[in-house]
């Protein structure tokens, strides 16, 4: 049995620990709110599209007038206007570089992908080439540990949601969740999901219901569906980004697309109007396939029809 003094000491220690924990949470919340106020995310001004400019949407690169803005520049500006920094995707300890390659193009408008490195990657010869191609238009930040990633997230005011299939999770389709001003959505490893560290730090554990015999999906498929659902919950998140970051990305992207410094400066100072529809004209959607292979396909189809 504890003496009265010892019991009081234990109780005091527990109260102090609880008070410290609560004060830490309040301080972290205050820091997030302060960062959000000082770094607002806004949508860029609307770029009106005139009838003449709209007619250029269906013009191929090879037939553009030299005085017109190249299609690739207008496409880059259109994509930039839809990119968001309000939502950050976290890939935690994914060991398969091909899964990462598949996830990155499916970010559906998310600009920032943070990767918590696994203990090892499955070795493939094309690792470097894959990483370079996948991250050309995405901002990727890498961390050695989940703890380091969380510190950076909280410092920038992000609230963490972790994907999880446990009974404690909330369906993203429940209608009870509200997307915060800054959201980090965590996708876990292919084998065992999100780490306990991330789960403990998460404000919510979330999942997408699957009405089938399996209870999980491939990482890239699950990521695409989760991000699509979040944008469905909060469509106004599209295009929300700090103004300075958008300007920086515009310069970075245009430098890859414009050979002349004079032309580059002009486009940066006066960005072109955006496309109303990014799809190409119908005459540009013919299958890109070699004539020899296309002929073989047609001959085989004719043989199948004759056999039938």
Automatic annotation (TrEMBL):
Residues 106-227 form the tRNA/rRNA methyltransferase SpoU type domain. One of its GO terms (molecular function) is tRNA binding. SUPFAM superfamilies: alpha/beta knot. It comes from the Eukaryota. Keywords: Methyltransferase, RNA-binding, Transferase, tRNA-binding. Coiled coil: none annotated. The keyword Lipid metabolism does not apply. The keyword Transferase applies. One of its GO terms (biological process) is tRNA guanine ribose methylation. PANTHER family: RRNA METHYLASE-LIKE, TRNA_RRNA METHYLTRANSFERASE SPOU TYPE DOMAIN-CONTAINING PROTEIN. This is tRNA/rRNA methyltransferase SpoU type domain-containing protein. It comes from Albugo candida. The lineage of its organism: Eukaryota, Sar, Stramenopiles, Oomycota, Peronosporomycetes.
């Amino acid at each position: 049995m504890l003496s009265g003094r010892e019991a009081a000491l234990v109780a005091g220690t527990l109260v102090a620990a609880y008070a410290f924990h609560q004060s830490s949470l309040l301080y972290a919340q205050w820091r997030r709110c302060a960062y959000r106020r000082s770094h607002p995310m806004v949508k860029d001004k609307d770029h009106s599209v005139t009838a003449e400019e709209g007619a250029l949407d269906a013009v191929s690169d090879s037939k553009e007038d030299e005085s017109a803005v190249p299609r690739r520049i207008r496409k880059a500006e259109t994509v930039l206007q839809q990119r968001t920094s309000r939502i950050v995707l976290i890939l935690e300890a994914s060991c398969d570089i091909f899964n990462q390659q598949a996830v990155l193009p499916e970010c559906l408008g998310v600009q920032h992908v943070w990767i918590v490195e696994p203990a090892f990657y499955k070795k493939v010869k094309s690792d470097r080439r894959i990483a370079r191609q996948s991250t050309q238009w995405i901002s990727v930040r890498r961390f050695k540990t989940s703890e380091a990633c969380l510190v950076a997230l909280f410092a920038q005011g992000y609230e963490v949601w972790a994907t999880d299939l446990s009974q404690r999770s909330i369906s993203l389709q429940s209608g009870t969740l509200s997307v915060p001003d800054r959201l980090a959505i965590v996708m876990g490893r292919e084998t065992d999901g999100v780490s306990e560290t991330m789960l403990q730090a998460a404000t919510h554990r979330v999942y997408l219901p699957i009405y089938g015999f399996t209870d999980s999906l491939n990482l890239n498929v699950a990521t695409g569906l989760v991000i699509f659902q979040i944008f469905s919950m909060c469509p106004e998140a599209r295009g929300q980004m700090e103004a300075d970051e958008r300007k920086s990305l515009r310069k970075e992207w245009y430098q890859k697309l414009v050979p002349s410094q004079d032309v580059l400066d002009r486009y940066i100072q006066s960005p072109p109007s955006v496309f109303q529809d990014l799809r190409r004209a119908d005459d540009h959607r013919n299958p890109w396939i070699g004539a020899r292979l296309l002929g073989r396909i047609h001959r085989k189809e004719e043989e199948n029809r004759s056999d039938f």
